[in-house]
Amino acid sequence: MTVKIKVTPEDEVSQMPAPEATIKIEIVEKERIEKQLNLRSALNGDLMILDHKDIDIVVQPTSKKIVTFAKEMMSDAVYGAESRLLEYLRGQGIINYDSIQGGNIYGSMEGQIMDSETHDPIKVTLIKISEWMDSEQPYIAGTTAYDDLQDDALTDPDNEYSTELGEVPHEDTKGSMQQRDMFAPYLYGRYTY
């Protein structure tokens, strides 16, 4: 890059017209992103996201970590949800590739959030978690509907799988264990057949 400098004598400078002072203001609208999460703040400042059916997600701003925990019980569904979340965040460039690992609590997984000089890493992480939650809604709706169908089948069965009281006739003996014999059926060496 070259710089040109022109030196003028003082008497010519005094004869030059004064430049008009103009200030140009340009207002730039930043893109506003709105997302909704069921989020709570812990006493130490950790952000707890409780939207998912199988897992709880904790974003730790001080240590720049994401930790996932099983909501109720440990199963393949819990591990699958944790793995999908952390792999999604890794693919989006939020988590370091080599930082995904099991946590120090049974059934938990964690990942380290990358540093950024241009963006707030915690805000970007929350936006990406919200996008992942939106992609998980069909899975959550499907498993919830299946669980509801199973509950309905047990509490209010169809006519094919249920009987009214008195439909099954009473018999004198039912089952394979005889009750009228002299010895109980489980005594060692005693056969009551």
CATH architecture call of the domain at 36-146:
2-Layer Sandwich
Q: What's the helical proportion of residues?
A: 25-40%
**Structural class designation:** alpha+beta
Largest sheet: 6 strands, antiparallel
Describe the structure.
The protein is an alpha+beta fold and 193 residues long. The chain has a domain of 111 residues: Gyrase A, domain 2. It is 30% helix and 12% strand. It is built from three helices and six strands, in the order αββββαββα. It has a six-stranded antiparallel sheet, with helices on one face. Strand 3 and strand 4 form a beta hairpin. It is elongated, with a radius of gyration of 35 Å. The mean pLDDT is 81.
A few lines on this structure:
The chain is of the alpha+beta class. The chain has a domain at 36-146: 2-Layer Sandwich (Gyrase A, domain 2). Helices cover 30% and strands 12% of the residues.
